[in-house]
User: Fold this.
Amino acid sequence: MKKTAFLALCLLIWATSCKKEETSYPNKPQIYYQSINTHQVRVADPNTMVSIHFKFTDGDQNIANDPAEQDSTIFLLDSRDISGNDFTYAYPMPYIPDDQRPDGGLEGVITLNLNNGYFSPKDSLHLALGKDTMFWLIYIKDNDGNKSNIIKTDTIYLNYR
Assistant:
């Protein structure tokens, strides 16, 4: 009897461990800040490159499905932007083919690479001082217009000299 119970328990554990776990996410996209590669930027350096890494999820997978990559779905707001707009820059999400989309939702990691042109001075005071600080606010939208949460990068220290 003990041997049969032990064998049944082993079979139960084996059967549940082999079952593929299906992940599901909310239909509204979500993003999660991961990191930034530098906190110091010399704006005059043409080799400047700031890489921002964040994770995204979307339960109904209606994002990143434009093969031409024309639809803007990634939005960045420069903290120094006083225009009142919801974003400073907009970009398309890289295309993910249907055969690479798993059941239960879509997840991935996005890296935004920003050169020195994204960090130009916004006012004469900070230009005269030769320095400034800023951060990025980032969100994404899916094809239904659902806006994700907003993430904030770490502070970036700008040197204009």
In short: Helices lie at 2-18, 124-129.
